[in-house]
Amino acid sequence: MKVSILLLGLGQLLLLVSKKSSTAIRVHCRDVERIHEDHIHYCCKHPDGHNDVTEQCAKQTKFKLPSRDEEAIEDLTVDHVMTGTCFAKCVFDHYNFMDNDKLNMTAVRNHYQTTYKEDPEYVKEMISAFNLCHSKSEDATAEFLSTSIVRAFSSSAYSCKPMPSVVLACVIHRFFHNCPRNRWSNTTECVETLAFSKKCKDVLTTM
Ligand SMILES: *[C@@H]1O[C@H](CO)[C@@H](O)[C@H](O)[C@H]1NC(C)=O
Ligand SMILES: *[C@@H]1O[C@H](CO)[C@@H](O)[C@H](O)[C@H]1NC(C)=O
Question: Is the pTM of this model over 0.70?
Fold first, then answer.
């Protein structure tokens, strides 16, 4: 009897200790300024560097890319992409991703499989993100568009059809949300961002 009480006590103590260590990062959801959403692209490894297509489309549509070395679509945040409907349309048109108002998944698959052969995990993640953002396009898009920040943006006047930027924004969201653990960068900023996004849903649009 005495032994089991002692064990129970030890169990509670262990629980207490493990609880304490899991709250090592303190997260305050109002503390948004501390979290730089535009740095999220440093956190999940993806092919980076110069990209002719995004650069040309950015010039053509006066869309601002983060920098010359940050021209991958994953270098953009969700709300940034939502302001660039013509940019997204230009990129999708270039790759022939759109077939009227629908995403052509054959074209998407071909593009990723041929361009990023050397990184099959990335190809798989991207195709799965596109697939989800298009196949469930009604559900996923509706759910996605209902997040508060996106809603604020979608009320502003569009100069191009919004579908490509909605799909692109959804893909970016999915990509970071499903980032495999081994591709997630273990820096303080990334660990904090992840903890923040888990606790404060709907504050960061990209996560
Ligand atoms: C979809 O893309 C593929 C590959 O680029 C192309 O062969 C096919 O004609 C396209 N389908 C439609 C319906 O446009
Ligand atoms: C991340 O970094 C921390 C502290 O530097 C270390 O304790 C932890 O094991 C690392 N985690 C991974 C998954 O590498």
Answer: yes
